[in-house]
User: What shape does this take?
Amino acid sequence: MDKANGTGATVEKTPAQTAAFAASIKRGRLRRILRTSTFRLVAVYLFIFALSVGAVLGYTYWQAQRLLHAQIEQTIAADVRGIAEQYAVNGLPGVMAVLRARMRKGAAAGGLYLLADPAGKPLAGNLPGLPAEARGIDHSGWLDFRIRVATPAGPRTRHVRAYYIRLNNGFHLLIGRDIEQLFQFGRVIRNLLFWVLGLTALLGVGGGLLLSRNFLRRIDGITASVRSIRAGRLARRVPVEGSGDELDRLAESLNDMLDQIERLMQGMREVSSNIAHDLKTPLTRLKAQAEDALRAGDEAHRRAALEATIAQADELLRTFNSLLLIARAEAGQARAGFSEVDVAEVAREVAELYEPLVEEQGGRFTLDVPARVRITGDRQLIAQALVNLLDNALKYGRHPERHPEIAVSVRALPERVELVVADNGPGVPEDMREKVKERFVRMDKARSKPGSGLGLSLVASIARLHGGELVLEDNQPGLRAVLRLPVRQNGGKGKAPGAA
Amino acid sequence: MHILVIEDDREAANWLLKGLREAGHVADLAATGPEGLEMARERDYDVLIVDRMLPGMDGLAIVRTLREEGNQTPALFLSALGEVEDKVEGLRAGGDDYLAKPYSFSELLARVEVLGRRKTAEPVQTRLRVGDMEMDLLKRRVTRAGKEILLQPREFKLLEYLMRNAGNVVTRTMLLENVWNYHFDPQTNVIDVHISRLRGKIDKEFDKPMLHTVRGAGYVLKAPEE
Assistant: This one.
């Protein structure tokens, strides 16, 4: 950080530098806060709020002004009618008498009057003189003007609204009201508007900053954890505050995802070392067969060796395909292709495919399947799982002293479906039943029979993909492989894959 | 048969061309997508072999474009992507078959020859005939030399597929895909048993067999040579 100061030398920072640095950090932080979605949301909300407050107050102001103006004008108009009557009956002296009488009564209830001769000289009334606005017009009508009056606190300007009448003989008559209060009222409303808006903005910005800072702090926590995980500290998890809000939910889903990734990586590590180990054997055989073909003297020998090489290569490819399928099932991608599957029909079809083979080998095949059992899943994968179990039963389920008996059945329970493939072979000892479901684990240690050691792991993966499981049981005698699949997919996480 | 191979991998392409020519076909090569599309438009090929991933233009796009232009030349996709969904995607784009890499040449050849035959076959058939064997698809009846042969539903489907592709080699995988609709290979050769049962019904009582095994490839049904 020192180098950022530009000198490159290790000089002690002056307090001013430190302060500037701190300020620049603060500015950066403030900029980030201002960019948060919370702050923006608050700002937008504030704007809308201020706009509506402004509109309400503005409308109130406008309506009140209109009403008050109308009232004053009505009052003046009534006054005008009274004086006009006097003028009609008694002429100018009558008007003067009325005005004088009004003056005597004090402030004449806020009324302002003036009678002036054609030259503009005041004759009666309480207005100091004919205002400039009234000179030079020759018709009657409304006038707005200002007068200066003496008050105990000194001279003040006051607003006046008046009705101007040009009498027949050229005399001027003004009848008005002091509307200063009206102006005051307007000013108060305007001030109120200003303060309300100002305060709203202040509170809004402050609150927005506060809220955003809190939000930013938690997001920063999540970002820091993610960075640290990316830097290699894989065991770290995103902090969860425990309030159960949306950020907590996000943190929890992130943590679930990280757990899943860690499990998958763990599985990958195990599998890669297993693959490396287990592919060596078939590759060595492949190489030996190719060398044998190269050495072969006669055509028939060479042909046989080459055919064996190809068969070995096919075997390897099958292993790879199984590995890919398992990987895909483990990753859960295949769930996108799920639809409604009648597992009873799948079982019938697979049974129909295998029955001749079992009979060919001198065995007995039985099928016990209800009419229709529907679940949500992948038809191809469920069929493949059954085929693998049948392949297994045919290959490893043979007892030297017994005729093979293979039974396929489907059982529909309320929550799940069980697909069972049972044989009467040597079975699998209890302590091996979990182990054989792992990749490349084979009972046949000598690897004398063909097979990749992936058949049951693929079945187990397919079961897990469907949110179910593969259970191996004792068939007394023989092995009973039960593929348990839930009837409905629970859209959520599904079952966590166990030991991969 | 005149075949166009659209494949950017030189080595794989040369191996393919050599194999196809040895099998008696005329094969051209296009190394890029646009070049392949141009050639497919210009000449009247019997079958296109199209790699999914190509420089310039995706294999799917080539076939889709051809189909939009009304070109119905059968197309077989080759791809390193072997999942069922990829297959569906390929067929939806107008492809007629799909083969995942790595494949064996005999598998490819069998599929190409079946596709090439399809181009000339009449659209709707209610009767199939190979030699003295006859299949009535409406009455679901099979006779050989006038004698009725009773078949299970699946055996009927199997024989129908073999008769539709009579004279061509069909592989076990092709049978699994087309007769059983399974897109995976079982470890054991279950198909062999079904074939031998069918053979027992259609060939056993007659002097000349029609259903033959082709070593290292698959099976072929053909009329006995007189």
Summary: The interface with chain B takes residues 307, 310, 314, 317-318, 321, 324-325, 328, 336-337, 349, 352-354, 356-357, 360, 380, 383-384, 387-388, 391, 394-395, 450-451, 455 of chain A (CB under 8 Å). The CA atoms of residues 355 and 365 of chain A lie 6 Å apart. Confidence is low (pLDDT under 50) at residues 1-11, 491-500 of chain A. The first helix of chain A runs from residue 15 to 35.
